[in-house]
Amino acid sequence: MHYRVLIVVIIISLALASPASAYGKSVEDLVGSFSIGKTIKIGSSSECFSSGDALDPLTPPQSGAVGPLSDDQAPSLAGFSIEPQQLSHASIEPINLTAHLIDDQAVWMARAAFSGPSGQEAIALLTSEDRTAGTAKDGSYSTQMMLPEGNETCLWQLQNITLVDQQGNRRVLSEEDLRDLGLPTMINVI
Q1: Rounded Cα–Cα distance for residues 147 and 89 (Å)
Q2: What is the largest CA-CA distance in the chain?
Q3: Domain extent at residue 125
Q4: What secondary structure does DSSP assign to 15-31, as a single string?
């Protein structure tokens, strides 16, 4: 019986002598290689404060891909055409836009924004449904756009083309960028 009492006294004295917060000090906790990945959203980001009511059609659904293989490159424009580049103001004729788009992962969408002489706008979207050849990584896209009706001769100028991939990476090519690439930037209404 004396042994039992002695064992209980030893166990109690060891329990009282050891600190209560001694967990996590094991050598095994420090063995191995570790990495931590974090995504931080800055408070001024439109993602943090958007209401969701006015959604930008150029914003793809977020896939959440993070890591060494995540897509951080914006798409590129390999070609662009406008047909016809000249049309009569007396006829209502659609304008055909064709773009050759390339991305390392997948193109989401492109938008061509034109402006007229009176501040009017004409916008054309090129989506995956408009892909006529190739793949989401390297494909040709075609769509039609109508200019607002008018009774005057005028020149419509391509203000910019915005390219977006499925990760939301964007590239905006200005009229000057497109001219430097030798691509058409005007529609003449006669």
Answers
A1: 10
A2: 114
A3: 83-189
A4: HHHS-TT-TT--GGGG-
pLDDT < 50: residue spans in the chain: 22-23, 25-27, 34, 38-54
User: Is residue 175 one of the residues assigned to a domain?
Assistant: yes
Instruction: Specify the amino acid at residue 32.
Output: G
d(Cα 161, Cα 158) in Å, to the nearest integer? 8
What SS3 class is residue 126? Answer: strand
Q: What is the CA radius of gyration of the chain?
A: 31
In a domain, 101, yes or no: yes
Length of the chain measured in residues = 190
pTM score > 0.90 for this model? no
Q: Is 51 left (phi over 0), alpha (psi -120 to 50) or beta?
A: alpha
CATH number at residue 145: 2.60.40.2550
Could you read off the pLDDT of 129-138 as tens digits, one per residue? Answer: 999 999 999 9
Quick: pLDDT tens for 64-109: 555 555 667 899 999 999 999 998 887 778 999 999 999 999 999 9
Report the number of distinct structural domains present in the chain.
1
